[in-house]
Write a structure and sequence with these properties.
It is a single chain. The protein is an alpha+beta fold and 467 residues long. It folds into two domains: 58-153, Sandwich (Immunoglobulin-like); 182-454, ABC transporter involved in vitamin B12 uptake, BtuC (Orthogonal Bundle), CATH 1.10.3470. Helix content is 52%, strand content 13%. It has a four-stranded mixed β-sheet, with no helix packed on it. It comes from Lacisediminihabitans changchengi. Keywords: Amino-acid transport, Cell membrane, Membrane, Signal, Transmembrane, Transmembrane helix, Transport. Residues 1-37 form the signal peptide. One of its GO terms (molecular function) is transmembrane transporter activity.
């Protein structure tokens, strides 16, 4: 014990040095002048009507379609203005046109009504604004046309899988046209939530702690993926791996520098939970201080690569679920077939009995924190390809993460997976039945409450737990 106390200052110095290095690296990455900075006082930027080079690092993908039959509309003029640029482009035979942009920023798209087919009107916003971040290719600029009787078209969803929701909002759509894309996006969203939820469930099962700072692990992974693929211009897959590794390291450092010392001092679960809330707030505002309050977009190709009826999938809509499924299967294999997995389940079932049988409980908890941080970091990096990243990305979905864990059964990793899929489906399908997008999380929580009334232990939870 004396030796451990003597070693603690050295450990804390290493942790502090790593944190300072991480902050310095982030500041260095963002120390270059912002491309969105305002012009100097008194200067009036000139309007540039010259198209940017086709190899520009960012672009907007304009797509004009008729909502009723999903047909593409060629020869439609669209004016693009913003950042000192004013360009007019014309859609091709596929109804699409790519607009390369020399600078990131917010651009306004407006359709020339005189170039529309007879009897057709623009459904939804026109003109509309599109935010383009550095290195973001093919940012979607969708326009749907109708005869004026098709009703309003909802804006593209910011939830995962939004790329499949461009099939229009016409009231003439069949039920399959409305429901199938929502099922696809809901399953993708559920898988992404499951990665983070399993970490929460494992930490709760082995320590009894409801970690309210877990959302910041998700934010950390999202920001790490953005920095690698955005400012550093490295491949997206490398950013995902970096987020996975750094997330695990962050979880390790959290347990080493904070949670393990508190456990040794015998701090109760309620004070630990309050500490996690304080840590969540501290990390959140550290992220805001370093990255700023603006939304950050991870570069991503928005064009569809696979069309299955009304479902239109981008490359990330295919690769992300595959990554999630593979990782979740590896976690299941580790829990069921490996010694450390069996030890983890033993600690979760009865910590005192596991320690009496010779299991190193602290080692198991440390591994669980590393695994939970890695899964949260991976989840954040993948979420960054579906919605803009910010300092509160993880906090915005933390309630859904806890809802998934509670619905599946507290402390059960497989229950967290089932609960996440249910929550993901409810969130997206609720919009198909007319629930406003800003109320979709409420619908998921209401369904969770209804299910828990009939099954209080959760879908896969047990009525009575030992210990």
């Amino acid at each position: 014990m004396v030796k451990a106390l003597r070693a603690r200052p050295a450990v804390l110095r290493v942790v502090l040095a790593l944190l300072v290095f991480a902050v310095a690296a982030a500041v260095f990455a963002f120390s270059a002048p912002s491309a969105n900075a305002a012009p100097a006082s008194g200067s009036v930027p000139a309007v540039d009507t010259t198209p940017a080079p086709t190899d520009s690092p960012q672009s907007i993908g304009v797509w004009v379609r008729i909502a009723a039959d999903k047909s593409n509309v060629p020869n439609v003029s669209v004016t693009v203005t913003g950042k000192g640029v004013s360009l007019t482009v014309v859609t091709g035979a596929d109804g699409k046109v790519t607009v390369p942009l020399a600078k990131p920023g917010t651009y306004k798209l407006a359709i020339d009504k005189s170039t529309l087919p007879d009897g057709q009107k623009v459904l939804g916003q026109d003109p509309r604004e599109v935010a383009v971040s550095t290195g973001n290719q093919g940012v979607p600029g969708y326009f749907l046309l109708g005869d004026g009787n098709t009703g309003a078209v909802p804006s593209a969803s910011a939830s995962p899988g939004a790329g499949s929701s461009d099939s229009g909002g016409s009231t003439k759509q069949s039920i399959a046209d409305v429901v199938l894309p929502r099922i696809a996006t809901g399953l993708i969203f559920g898988l992404l939530i499951a990665l983070a939820s399993i970490g929460v469930s494992l930490i709760y099962g082995t320590t009894g702690l409801n970690n309210f700072a877990h959302g910041e692990l998700v934010t950390f992974g999202a920001l790490a993926g953005y920095v690698v693929a955005g400012p550093l211009h490295l491949p997206g897959w490398f950013g995902i791996i970096v987020a996975l590794v750094l997330g695990g390291a962050f979880g390790y450092l959290q347990d080493l520098g904070l949670w393990k010392p508190l456990r040794k001092k015998g701090v109760g679960l309620i004070p630990l939970m309050i500490v996690s809330i304080g840590l969540s707030l501290a990390l959140r505002y550290i992220f805001q201080f370093i990255f700023g309050p603006d939304l950050l977009v991870t570069p991503n190709n928005q064009s569809s690569v696979l069309n299955l009826g009304p479902i239109h999938l981008r490359s990330t809509d295919i690769s992300s679920p595959i990554i999630c499924i593979v990782v979740l299967l590896l976690v299941a294999f580790a829990l069921l077939r490996t010694r450390i997995g069996k030890a983890t389940r033993a600690v979760a079932d009865n910590r005192s009995l596991a320690a009496a049988t010779g299991i190193n409980v602290e080692r198991v908890i440390r591994i669980v924190w590393v695994a939970g941080g890695a899964l949260a970091g991976l989840s954040g990096a993948l979420i960054g390809y579906y919605q803009p990243v910010s300092w509160q990305t993880g906090a915005s979905i933390l309630l859904l993460i806890f809802a998934s864990v509670t619905l599946g059964g507290l402390g059960t990793a497989f229950g967290a997976l089932v609960g996440s899929l249910v929550i993901g489906l409810i969130v997206d399908l609720s919009q198909a039945v007319g629930v406003p997008s800003n109320m979709k999380f409420v619908a998921a929580l209401l369904v969770m409450i209804i299910i828990l009334i009939f099954r209080p232990q959760g879908i896969l939870g047990r009525k009575d737990r030992i210990g």
